[in-house]
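Run log, item B.
One chain of 294 residues. Sequence copied directly from the ordering sheet:
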Amino acid sequence: MTEQLTERISSSMNGLSKGQKLIADFILLHYDKAAYMTAARLGETVGVSESTVVRFATELGYDGYPELQNAMQEMIRDKLTSVQRIDVAANRINSDDVLASVLNHDIKLIKKTLDGADRELFNLAVKSIVNARTIYIFAVKSSFALARFLGYYFELIFGNVKIIETTSKTEMYEQLFRIDKQDVMIGISFPRYSASTMDAMCFASEKGATVIAITDSMTSPVTKISDCVLLARSDMASVVDSIVAPMSLINALIVATVEEKRDEVTQTFKELEGIWEKYDLYIKNGERTTGEKQ
Protein backbone atom coordinates (compact mmCIF):
# COMPACT_ATOMS: atom_id res chain seq x y z
CA MET A 1 0.00 0.00 0.00
CA THR A 2 2.88 2.39 0.74
CA GLU A 3 4.47 1.94 -2.67
CA GLN A 4 1.10 1.97 -4.35
CA LEU A 5 0.18 5.40 -2.95
CA THR A 6 3.52 7.03 -3.70
CA GLU A 7 3.53 5.48 -7.16
CA ARG A 8 0.00 6.73 -7.81
CA ILE A 9 1.01 10.25 -6.84
CA SER A 10 4.17 10.16 -8.99
CA SER A 11 2.42 8.76 -12.04
CA SER A 12 -0.48 11.24 -11.75
CA MET A 13 1.55 14.36 -10.95
CA ASN A 14 1.65 15.78 -14.50
CA GLY A 15 -2.14 15.62 -14.79
CA LEU A 16 -2.92 17.26 -11.45
CA SER A 17 -4.21 20.78 -11.06
CA LYS A 18 -2.14 23.37 -9.21
CA GLY A 19 -4.16 22.87 -6.03
CA GLN A 20 -3.95 19.08 -6.27
CA LYS A 21 -0.17 19.29 -6.68
CA LEU A 22 -0.04 21.23 -3.40
CA ILE A 23 -1.90 18.37 -1.73
CA ALA A 24 0.40 15.78 -3.31
CA ASP A 25 3.54 17.60 -2.17
CA PHE A 26 2.19 17.97 1.35
CA ILE A 27 1.35 14.25 1.60
CA LEU A 28 4.76 13.19 0.31
CA LEU A 29 6.54 15.47 2.78
CA HIS A 30 4.19 15.25 5.79
CA TYR A 31 2.23 12.00 5.42
CA ASP A 32 2.50 11.46 9.18
CA LYS A 33 0.35 14.56 9.74
CA ALA A 34 -1.89 14.23 6.67
CA ALA A 35 -2.92 10.65 7.47
CA TYR A 36 -5.15 11.67 10.35
CA MET A 37 -6.53 14.92 8.96
CA THR A 38 -10.07 15.23 7.66
CA ALA A 39 -10.45 16.33 4.06
CA ALA A 40 -11.48 19.77 5.30
CA ARG A 41 -8.49 20.04 7.63
CA LEU A 42 -6.06 18.91 4.92
CA GLY A 43 -7.50 21.43 2.49
CA GLU A 44 -7.27 24.23 5.05
CA THR A 45 -3.65 23.32 5.83
CA VAL A 46 -2.62 23.29 2.18
CA GLY A 47 -4.74 26.25 1.15
CA VAL A 48 -7.33 24.58 -1.06
CA SER A 49 -11.00 23.68 -0.73
CA GLU A 50 -12.32 20.43 0.76
CA SER A 51 -13.81 19.53 -2.63
CA THR A 52 -10.34 19.85 -4.20
CA VAL A 53 -9.03 17.30 -1.69
CA VAL A 54 -11.87 14.92 -2.53
CA ARG A 55 -11.25 15.32 -6.27
CA PHE A 56 -7.54 14.67 -5.65
CA ALA A 57 -8.42 11.33 -4.05
CA THR A 58 -10.55 10.27 -7.01
CA GLU A 59 -7.89 11.52 -9.44
CA LEU A 60 -5.50 9.02 -7.85
CA GLY A 61 -8.03 6.23 -8.39
CA TYR A 62 -9.50 5.97 -4.90
CA ASP A 63 -13.24 5.75 -4.32
CA GLY A 64 -13.08 8.81 -2.09
CA TYR A 65 -11.08 10.57 0.58
CA PRO A 66 -11.60 7.85 3.27
CA GLU A 67 -9.86 5.30 1.04
CA LEU A 68 -6.98 7.70 0.40
CA GLN A 69 -6.75 8.35 4.14
CA ASN A 70 -6.53 4.60 4.81
CA ALA A 71 -3.68 4.39 2.30
CA MET A 72 -1.84 7.21 4.08
CA GLN A 73 -2.35 5.53 7.45
CA GLU A 74 -0.88 2.31 6.07
CA MET A 75 2.19 4.35 5.08
CA ILE A 76 2.86 5.45 8.63
CA ARG A 77 1.55 2.54 10.67
CA ASP A 78 4.94 0.99 11.38
CA LYS A 79 7.15 4.03 10.83
CA LEU A 80 6.30 6.64 13.44
CA THR A 81 8.57 7.11 16.42
CA SER A 82 7.07 7.67 19.86
CA VAL A 83 7.75 11.40 19.61
CA GLN A 84 6.00 11.60 16.23
CA ARG A 85 3.03 9.74 17.69
CA ILE A 86 2.60 12.42 20.34
CA ASP A 87 2.58 15.11 17.64
CA VAL A 88 0.05 13.21 15.52
CA ALA A 89 -2.20 12.61 18.53
CA ALA A 90 -2.34 16.34 19.19
CA ASN A 91 -4.17 16.75 15.87
CA ARG A 92 -6.57 13.86 16.49
CA ILE A 93 -7.63 13.97 20.11
CA ASN A 94 -9.95 16.51 21.65
CA SER A 95 -7.89 17.73 24.59
CA ASP A 96 -11.06 19.04 26.25
CA ASP A 97 -12.44 15.50 26.51
CA VAL A 98 -9.68 12.95 26.10
CA LEU A 99 -11.80 10.21 27.70
CA ALA A 100 -14.57 10.48 25.12
CA SER A 101 -12.11 10.86 22.23
CA VAL A 102 -10.16 7.73 23.07
CA LEU A 103 -13.15 5.54 23.98
CA ASN A 104 -15.11 6.54 20.89
CA HIS A 105 -12.07 5.81 18.75
CA ASP A 106 -11.75 2.36 20.32
CA ILE A 107 -15.43 1.69 19.61
CA LYS A 108 -14.82 2.52 15.94
CA LEU A 109 -11.86 0.12 15.83
CA ILE A 110 -14.00 -2.75 17.17
CA LYS A 111 -16.69 -1.95 14.59
CA LYS A 112 -14.12 -1.94 11.76
CA THR A 113 -12.72 -5.26 13.02
CA LEU A 114 -16.17 -6.84 13.01
CA ASP A 115 -17.02 -5.45 9.57
CA GLY A 116 -13.85 -6.92 8.10
CA ALA A 117 -13.87 -10.23 9.96
CA ASP A 118 -13.39 -13.42 7.92
CA ARG A 119 -15.53 -16.07 9.66
CA GLU A 120 -14.05 -18.91 7.62
CA LEU A 121 -10.49 -18.06 8.67
CA PHE A 122 -11.61 -17.54 12.26
CA ASN A 123 -13.20 -21.01 12.35
CA LEU A 124 -10.11 -22.52 10.73
CA ALA A 125 -7.95 -20.97 13.45
CA VAL A 126 -10.22 -22.37 16.16
CA LYS A 127 -10.06 -25.90 14.75
CA SER A 128 -6.27 -25.73 14.39
CA ILE A 129 -5.91 -24.62 18.00
CA VAL A 130 -8.30 -27.25 19.35
CA ASN A 131 -6.48 -30.05 17.49
CA ALA A 132 -2.94 -28.91 18.30
CA ARG A 133 -0.62 -31.00 20.43
CA THR A 134 1.03 -27.86 21.83
CA ILE A 135 0.00 -24.23 21.45
CA TYR A 136 2.91 -21.78 21.26
CA ILE A 137 2.22 -18.05 21.70
CA PHE A 138 4.72 -15.32 20.93
CA ALA A 139 4.51 -11.53 21.23
CA VAL A 140 6.63 -8.69 22.54
CA LYS A 141 6.22 -5.09 23.72
CA SER A 142 2.59 -3.98 24.18
CA SER A 143 1.37 -7.07 22.31
CA PHE A 144 2.78 -9.25 25.10
CA ALA A 145 -0.17 -8.28 27.31
CA LEU A 146 -2.41 -9.93 24.71
CA ALA A 147 -0.23 -13.05 24.68
CA ARG A 148 -0.39 -13.36 28.47
CA PHE A 149 -4.17 -12.97 28.51
CA LEU A 150 -4.66 -15.52 25.73
CA GLY A 151 -2.13 -17.90 27.29
CA TYR A 152 -3.75 -17.71 30.74
CA TYR A 153 -7.12 -18.92 29.47
CA PHE A 154 -5.73 -21.41 26.96
CA GLU A 155 -3.63 -22.96 29.73
CA LEU A 156 -6.79 -23.45 31.82
CA ILE A 157 -8.70 -24.84 28.85
CA PHE A 158 -6.03 -26.99 27.18
CA GLY A 159 -3.07 -27.37 29.54
CA ASN A 160 -0.66 -27.56 26.60
CA VAL A 161 0.38 -23.95 26.16
CA LYS A 162 3.84 -22.38 25.95
CA ILE A 163 4.14 -18.61 26.06
CA ILE A 164 7.56 -17.61 24.77
CA GLU A 165 8.63 -14.93 27.22
CA THR A 166 12.03 -13.93 25.90
CA THR A 167 13.40 -11.64 23.23
CA SER A 168 16.80 -13.35 23.34
CA LYS A 169 17.16 -15.18 20.03
CA THR A 170 19.10 -18.00 21.63
CA GLU A 171 16.46 -18.61 24.31
CA MET A 172 13.65 -18.15 21.80
CA TYR A 173 14.94 -20.89 19.52
CA GLU A 174 15.67 -23.12 22.52
CA GLN A 175 12.04 -22.82 23.61
CA LEU A 176 10.78 -23.45 20.09
CA PHE A 177 13.10 -26.17 18.85
CA ARG A 178 10.62 -29.04 19.55
CA ILE A 179 7.79 -27.40 17.58
CA ASP A 180 6.58 -29.42 14.59
CA LYS A 181 3.59 -30.09 12.33
CA GLN A 182 1.43 -31.26 15.25
CA ASP A 183 1.67 -27.86 16.90
CA VAL A 184 0.29 -24.35 16.44
CA MET A 185 2.19 -21.09 16.69
CA ILE A 186 0.13 -17.96 17.43
CA GLY A 187 2.13 -14.83 16.67
CA ILE A 188 0.71 -11.48 17.78
CA SER A 189 2.18 -8.43 16.08
CA PHE A 190 0.97 -4.85 15.75
CA PRO A 191 2.79 -1.69 14.67
CA ARG A 192 5.58 -1.11 15.15
CA TYR A 193 6.08 -4.69 13.99
CA SER A 194 8.59 -6.74 15.95
CA ALA A 195 11.45 -8.48 14.16
CA SER A 196 11.57 -11.05 16.98
CA THR A 197 7.95 -12.07 16.40
CA MET A 198 8.66 -12.42 12.69
CA ASP A 199 11.70 -14.61 13.40
CA ALA A 200 9.74 -16.87 15.77
CA MET A 201 6.90 -17.32 13.29
CA CYS A 202 9.31 -18.04 10.42
CA PHE A 203 11.04 -20.70 12.52
CA ALA A 204 7.71 -22.32 13.41
CA SER A 205 6.67 -22.31 9.76
CA GLU A 206 9.94 -23.91 8.67
CA LYS A 207 9.38 -26.67 11.25
CA GLY A 208 5.95 -27.41 9.76
CA ALA A 209 3.73 -25.97 12.51
CA THR A 210 0.45 -24.25 11.68
CA VAL A 211 1.12 -20.52 12.02
CA ILE A 212 -1.69 -18.18 13.05
CA ALA A 213 -1.13 -14.43 12.90
CA ILE A 214 -3.11 -11.93 14.93
CA THR A 215 -2.30 -8.58 13.37
CA ASP A 216 -3.85 -5.38 12.06
CA SER A 217 -3.56 -5.47 8.27
CA MET A 218 -2.78 -7.71 5.32
CA THR A 219 0.21 -5.46 4.72
CA SER A 220 1.67 -6.60 8.05
CA PRO A 221 4.91 -8.52 7.40
CA VAL A 222 3.80 -11.53 9.47
CA THR A 223 0.98 -12.33 7.04
CA LYS A 224 3.48 -13.61 4.48
CA ILE A 225 4.50 -16.60 6.59
CA SER A 226 1.12 -17.38 8.19
CA ASP A 227 -1.33 -20.14 7.37
CA CYS A 228 -4.19 -18.21 8.93
CA VAL A 229 -4.46 -14.44 9.47
CA LEU A 230 -6.89 -12.91 11.97
CA LEU A 231 -7.20 -9.15 11.59
CA ALA A 232 -8.02 -6.72 14.38
CA ARG A 233 -7.83 -3.01 13.81
CA SER A 234 -5.28 -1.25 15.97
CA ASP A 235 -4.27 2.35 16.15
CA MET A 236 -2.36 4.71 18.33
CA ALA A 237 -3.59 7.13 20.94
CA SER A 238 -0.46 9.19 21.48
CA VAL A 239 2.35 6.81 22.55
CA VAL A 240 -0.22 4.18 23.58
CA ASP A 241 -1.16 1.38 21.20
CA SER A 242 -4.88 0.66 21.22
CA ILE A 243 -5.29 -3.07 21.81
CA VAL A 244 -9.03 -2.97 22.48
CA ALA A 245 -10.07 -4.55 19.17
CA PRO A 246 -7.31 -7.22 19.32
CA MET A 247 -8.40 -8.06 22.87
CA SER A 248 -11.99 -8.41 21.71
CA LEU A 249 -10.89 -10.73 18.91
CA ILE A 250 -8.92 -12.82 21.40
CA ASN A 251 -11.97 -13.00 23.67
CA ALA A 252 -13.94 -14.39 20.73
CA LEU A 253 -11.17 -16.91 20.02
CA ILE A 254 -11.24 -18.13 23.63
CA VAL A 255 -15.03 -18.43 23.70
CA ALA A 256 -15.05 -20.30 20.39
CA THR A 257 -12.52 -22.87 21.62
CA VAL A 258 -14.57 -23.36 24.79
CA GLU A 259 -17.62 -24.09 22.63
CA GLU A 260 -15.61 -26.66 20.67
CA LYS A 261 -14.56 -28.44 23.89
CA ARG A 262 -17.61 -27.69 26.03
CA ASP A 263 -17.79 -31.00 27.93
CA GLU A 264 -14.07 -31.14 28.70
CA VAL A 265 -13.92 -27.49 29.69
CA THR A 266 -16.98 -27.84 31.93
CA GLN A 267 -15.31 -30.69 33.79
CA THR A 268 -12.04 -28.75 34.04
CA PHE A 269 -13.71 -25.73 35.59
CA LYS A 270 -15.74 -27.85 37.97
CA GLU A 271 -12.47 -29.19 39.34
CA LEU A 272 -10.94 -25.70 39.40
CA GLU A 273 -13.94 -24.31 41.30
CA GLY A 274 -13.39 -27.00 43.92
CA ILE A 275 -9.73 -25.99 44.26
CA TRP A 276 -10.57 -22.29 44.43
CA GLU A 277 -13.18 -22.99 47.09
CA LYS A 278 -10.91 -25.24 49.13
CA TYR A 279 -8.03 -22.80 49.20
CA ASP A 280 -10.14 -19.67 49.61
CA LEU A 281 -8.95 -17.91 46.49
CA TYR A 282 -11.84 -15.51 46.18
CA ILE A 283 -13.53 -13.14 48.59
CA LYS A 284 -17.18 -13.91 49.40
CA ASN A 285 -19.68 -11.48 50.86
CA GLY A 286 -17.00 -8.88 51.36
CA GLU A 287 -14.60 -11.02 53.40
CA ARG A 288 -12.57 -14.20 53.30
CA THR A 289 -14.20 -17.16 54.99
CA THR A 290 -11.16 -19.33 55.60
CA GLY A 291 -7.41 -19.01 55.66
CA GLU A 292 -5.59 -15.78 56.44
CA LYS A 293 -7.77 -12.70 56.93
CA GLN A 294 -5.31 -10.08 55.77
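Observations after the first pass:
- The beta strands are 135-138, 161-164, 184-188, 210-215, 228-231, 235-237, 240-242.
- The chain has a mean pLDDT of 87.
Flagged for discussion on Thursday.
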